[in-house]
Design goal:
By secondary structure, this protein is of the alpha+beta class. Helix content is 49%, strand content 11%. The chain is built from 14 helices and five strands. A five-stranded antiparallel beta sheet has the order 1-2-5-3-4. Strand 3 and strand 4 form a beta hairpin. The protein starts with a helix and ends with a helix. Pfam families: HTH_18 (PF12833). One of its GO terms (molecular function) is transcription cis-regulatory region binding. Keywords: DNA-binding, Transcription, Transcription regulation.
């Protein structure tokens, strides 16, 4: 990955080493907080340091550093998914947003298990085995953050998480077969057993960002619903159902005020992006991802069309 996603991954790996008590011994670690842009070599250097310190079985454990990132918007955006299918869809969207050359492909998803594959978009350049195992561990941590229990993973037929067979994983890596995964989990019996996931799903954005607009209450209701999940906004049918209306009735009521749902979504995304830019120091690309834009170019184009300024210039001009 690149940009903010790569920086976030390095931060997770660094935190994972700290949780395992390996953050201070051995070779110096790359600086995980160096900025939004982290070179591929930096990430690979950290993976290599982890491999040298703890062997192949350590790599899937690095994802546990994710549990210390609750404050991060990216963490919130991923674990606000209502189920495993939505979580994997969000992960896929993140990979596409940052134009990652490596992708996690979903092969099969059942009630308590999933089969996935870590692949490269470039022929003849597969992901490094060590990187694949780190990503596998991160997905395990994400499943745990959803409140799922007894999360387990295998790479090929080799146990990788929560306890990995180091020698078998090494042999698997040498055979170039570390990118085929099987994950399984158990759904808790009650919400009380779900752990910290519920707190992480609380919306980060204020839900009244459009309150100053002269919109009728019907449109304001839709705006608040849209703000709850801009990466996967509710459909017209879902918005209408929440108002006890048919989709056609909702569209007709909005049209009476010269509005459409697509307009509401565009305005909500714009105001949410402005909030992230002005109220936080998170990278520009991350703000666009959290607001549901397809990629950074799409974010830049839409934001500039509506404000006359690129996101970076907007932040520089108005950051208080």
């Amino acid at each position: 990955m690149s940009d903010f996603a790569s920086a976030a991954m390095v931060a997770v790996m660094h935190a994972g080493l700290q949780r395992l008590g390996l953050g201070s011994d051995g070779p110096a670690l790359p600086d995980a907080a160096a900025g939004a842009h982290v070179a591929l070599q930096t990430k690979r250097a950290l993976v290599g340091a982890a491999l040298a310190r703890g062997g192949w079985a350590l790599l899937p454990q690095l994802g546990q550093g994710f549990h210390g990132q609750d404050h991060a918007p990216l963490h919130r955006a991923l674990v606000s998914a209502p189920d495993v299918a939505s979580l994997l869809a969000r992960w896929s969207r993140l990979e596409k947003y940052v134009h990652s050359r490596h992708r996690v492909e979903l092969l099969q998803l059942g009630g308590h298990e999933a089969r996935l594959r870590h692949v490269s978009l470039r022929a003849g350049e597969p992901p490094m085995a060590a990187e694949s195992l780190v990503v596998l561990g991160l997905l395990c941590a994400l499943l745990q953050s959803l409140g799922l229990q007894q999360v387990q993973a295998r790479a090929g037929a080799v146990p990788a998480f929560p306890r990995g067979d180091g020698e078998a994983l090494r042999a698997l890596a040498e055979a170039g077969a570390a990118g085929s995964w099987h994950l399984s989990w158990q759904v808790p019996d009650s919400a009380a057993d779900a752990g910290p996931a519920a707190a992480a799903r609380a919306p980060a954005l204020p839900l009244d960002l459009c309150q100053a607009l002269p919109w009728p209450e019907l449109a304001q209701h839709c705006a608040r619903r849209l703000l709850q999940d801009l990466m996967h906004p509710p459909s017209v049918a879902s918005l209408a159902q929440g108002l006890a209306l048919s989709p056609r009735s909702l569209q007709r009521h909005l049209q009476q005020h010269g509005l459409r749902v697509s307009q509401l979504l565009a305005e909500v995304r714009l105001r949410a992006a402005a909030w992230w830019l002005l109220e936080t120091r998170h990278p520009l690309a991350e703000a666009g991802f959290l607001c549901g834009y397809a990629d950074q170019a799409h974010f830049n184009r839409c934001f500039k069309r509506h404000t006359g300024m690129a996101p970076g210039a907007y932040r520089q001009s108005f950051f208080g």
